[in-house]
DNA sequence: GGCCAGGCTAGCA
DNA sequence: TGCTAGCATGGC
């Protein structure tokens, strides 16, 4: 549903409504950002609004979103201040539906989780939580590589510095600067020496630039991934230096939105699993995969909820 | 100052 | 196949 209209005297050149599958908790989505910062987003918690730049094709477009309705009847209003062609409208809506996990039905997953006693409290506490995905696979991979072995806050700082160095800037009517994530071409043109002053390690700088070049020269074809099985994707991408299993699992989970990934090497997941399952020792990767067998075919969602238990503790949320 | 962060590679048995 | 030192930096 798209139309043109006047609001508060301003011309909103494109607007539409995105339907969502309940239950959907905007509050949880936004609260997660407190512990998982994303420098691309401008969030207003009081008004449940979010603004960021999406690339529609190659064109960066500033998009304003308002979360509306209720947990059981949720929807998103979106608008832009530029006109969009019909195909751009379709592409933008498809991207938004993907990014906000609009079509994921949590009900059967909760039913599944309730069979795992330690998960019951999480299905109640985090009801309606789902992932906000990355908007494309290039930036998803780059952000995941950046996030290897460093804390989330530092990773967000490095991501922001990369965007400031090589991304596109858009300024809104209030003067706020919005960063669009760099294209693969822009990153491919960089040298590791460009990233070292931003506090990237030498190796991480090489990994990211090599990856961008592999896409530009066709060694890696991201569009083909959507047709491939999880195991094939792991095999294909871990052939690249700097990309290990954890990184590809995160790409499939945060970038592709696949439902059954278990990044078992993840330190946050190890800590969370120990906490939620009340284990005497921190589980290793093998132990996590063993426990996770009971979570099929929804291991991504289990992982998210276990991570979020850690996030809630960090945010000092009270558990009533 | 020591240890931990949403790991990966290279080298070695 | 499986194990481990080394990597680099920030935050507590």
| Spatial sequence of strands, sheet with the most strands | 1-2-6-5-4-3
What gross morphology would you assign? globular
Which series of helices and strands comes N to C? Answer: EEHEEEEHHHHHEEHHHHHHHH
* CATH hierarchy, class of the domain at 137-253: Mainly Alpha
Radius of gyration: 20 Å
Summed up, the helix count is 14
Please state the second-level CATH architecture of the domain at 137-253.
Orthogonal Bundle
Distance between the termini: 41 Å
Domain HhH-GPD: 146-311
GO biological process, one term: DNA alkylation repair
Keywords: DNA damage, DNA repair
GO molecular function: alkylated DNA binding; DNA-3-methyladenine glycosylase activity; DNA-7-methylguanine glycosylase activity
Quick structural gist:
The chain contains 14 helices and 8 strands. The protein is of the alpha+beta class and 320 residues long. Among the domains are: 2-103, TATA-Binding Protein (2-Layer Sandwich), CATH 3.30.310; 137-253, Endonuclease III, domain 1 (Orthogonal Bundle), CATH 1.10.340.30.
Description:
By secondary structure, the protein is of the alpha+beta class. 43% of the residues lie in helices and 17% in strands. Among the domains are: 102 residues, DNA-3-methyladenine glycosylase AlkA, N-terminal domain (TATA-Binding Protein), CATH 3.30.310; 117 residues, Orthogonal Bundle (Endonuclease III, domain 1). The chain is built from 14 helices and eight strands. Helix 5 runs antiparallel to helix 9, helix 10 crosses helix 11 and helix 12 crosses helix 14. The structure holds a DNA duplex (13 and 12 nucleotides).
């Amino acid at each position: 549903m798209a139309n043109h209209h006047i609001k508060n005297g301003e011309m909103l050149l494109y607007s539409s409504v995105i339907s969502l599958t309940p239950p959907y908790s905007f509050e949880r989505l936004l609260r997660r950002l407190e512990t998982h910062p994303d420098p691309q987003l401008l969030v207003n918690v009081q008004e449940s609004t979010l603004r960021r730049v999406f690339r529609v094709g190659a064109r960066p477009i500033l998009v304003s979103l308002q979360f509306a309705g209720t947990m059981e009847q949720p929807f998103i209003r979106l608008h832009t201040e530029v006109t969009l062609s019909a195909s751009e409208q379709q592409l933008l809506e498809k991207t938004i539906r993907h990014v906000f996990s609009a079509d994921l039905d949590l009900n059967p997953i909760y039913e599944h989780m309730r069979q795992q006693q330690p998960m019951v409290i999480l299905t109640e506490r985090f009801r309606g939580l789902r992932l906000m995905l990355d908007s494309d696979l290039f930036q998803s991979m780059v952000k995941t590589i950046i996030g290897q072995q460093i804390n989330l806050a530092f990773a967000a700082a490095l991501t922001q510095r990369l965007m400031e160095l090589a991304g596109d800037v858009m300024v809104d009517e209030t003067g706020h600067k919005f960063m669009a994530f760099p294209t693969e071409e822009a990153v491919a043109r960089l040298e590791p020496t460009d990233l070292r002053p931003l506090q990237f390690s030498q190796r991480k700088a090489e990994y990211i630039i090599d990856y961008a070049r592999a896409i530009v020269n066709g060694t890696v074809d991201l569009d083909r991934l959507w047709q491939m099985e999880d195991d094939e994707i792991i095999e294909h991408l871990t052939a690249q230096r700097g990309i290990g299993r954890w990184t590809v699992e995160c790409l499939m989970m945060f970038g592709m939105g696949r439902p059954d990934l278990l990044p078992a090497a993840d330190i946050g997941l190890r800590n969370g699993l120990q906490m939620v399952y009340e284990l005497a020792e921190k589980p290793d990767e093998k132990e996590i995969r063993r426990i996770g067998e009971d979570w099929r075919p929804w291991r991504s969602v289990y992982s998210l909820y276990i991570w979020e238990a850690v996030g809630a503790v960090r945010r000092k949320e009270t558990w009533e």
